[in-house]
Amino acid sequence: MFVATLIAAGKLTDEVVREAIDRLDMTGHDVGAPHWLDEHDAADIYFQGSLVSARSELAKMDHGALDVVVQPMGDRAKKLIIADMDSTMITVECIDELADYAGLKDQVAAITKRAMTGELDFRAALEERVALLGGMSEGVLAECRYERVKLTRGARTLVQTMKAHGAHSVLVTGGFTAFAGPVGEAIGFDKVVANELVIKDGMLTGKVAEPIVDKDAKLATLTAEAAKLGLPLAATLAVGDGANDIPMITSAGLGIGYRPHPAAEEAADAAIRHHDLTALLWAQGYPRRSWVLG
After folding, report:
1. How far out from the chain centre does Cα 198 lie?
2. Which of 76, 112, 212, 250 is found 20 to 30 A from 232 (Cα to Cα)?
3. What is the CATH number of the domain that holds 44?
4. DSSP codes, 136-182
5. Is the pTM value of this prediction over 0.85?
6. C-alpha to C-alpha distance for 249 and 236, rounded to whole angstroms
7. Does residue 290 sit within a domain?
8. Is the bond into 211 cis (omega within 30 degrees of 0)?
9. Rounded distance, CA 159 to CA 161, Å?
């Protein structure tokens, strides 16, 4: 049994739900009656058939603000969330914003974009960008965090609601502890895994401490945390936006691309392009009345 969750906050109509049912029916799926999670916001359609075919068919729906998540029914409410930070749990890429204080934002952002799309090796791109920040005062880290870093809408509600329903939460990022620690605390993550900038005499040295958190480390975090909790990977959710997130996204029970770059979108089970992070609560079957608002 599978479930397709249609999400269009405030704009989901009976006609759109009916179109989804008709599309599934016409492509050979055995479709049940729809169930509203929250009227005009999100609805579930249960069906039997082909997961791949259903995802392909429902992806053809063109209603502007519609996000669709199609997945197996089993282990739908996940017990472990592994989340990327930059451009996922927060609205910016911290290293790009930090570079702006050195007048290097355009140069660093261009490298970041190529790394996130998979054109550049993440480790090499990270070391190149951090080297450009050598000589920057340590105090700029806190200044940048205060002035530039904003939580993505729905981030705290997503994590707090999952925790209230028994889930464990880990923020894992190729970004830096100076940002990830406070962000993780503000959202309520149980654990934070991030890179550490090397600082000497109050100045950034232009180096990153080993071991570097890259795509392999993100995947290792997912598998290690699931094993520690005695969970199958089917009971996990991973969310991110870039190529560095692909291994954890493809290995999790539900892999979500949030406003993703093309490579991450192609790898993900579903992409959230229009809504905030609370879409992942509807995807797990949580109606709004069960949310812990953050």
Report:
1. 27
2. 212
3. 3.30.70.260
4. -BTHHHHHHHHHH--BPTTHHHHHHHHHHTT-EEEEEEEEEHHHHHH
5. yes
6. 10
7. no
8. yes
9. 5
Q: What is the pLDDT of residues 195-228, one digit of tens each?
A: 999 999 999 999 999 999 999 999 999 999 999 9
Residue type, 52: V
Backbone angles phi, psi at 31, to 5 degrees: -110, 135
96 tagged catalytic: no
CA–CA distance, 243 with 122 (Å, rounded to integer): 9
pLDDT digits (tens, 9 = 90+) for 94-138: 999 999 999 999 999 999 999 988 898 999 999 999 999 999 999
Indicate whether 18 belongs to any domain: yes
Structural domain includes residue 68: yes
- From 41, 44, 67, 84, active-site residue: 84
Amino acid letter for position 239: V
Residue 54 belongs to domain spanning: 1-73
User: What residue spans of the chain are helical by DSSP H?
Assistant: 14-26, 51-58, 94-100, 105-116, 122-132, 139-148, 155-164, 177-187, 215-229, 246-251, 262-267, 279-283
Q: Which of 41, 44, 67, 86 is catalytic?
A: 86
Q: 152, 171 in Cβ contact below 8 A?
A: no
- Does a structural domain hold residue 48? yes
Q: Is 86 a catalytic residue?
A: yes
Domain count, the chain: 1
Measured CA to CA, the distance from residue 270 to residue 203 in angstroms comes to 42
Q: Which amino acid is at 246?
A: I
Task: Write the DSSP assignment of 35-68 as a string of letters.
Answer: EEEETTTEEEEEEES-HHHHHHHHTT---SS-EE
Q: Token match 């429902």: residue?
A: 58
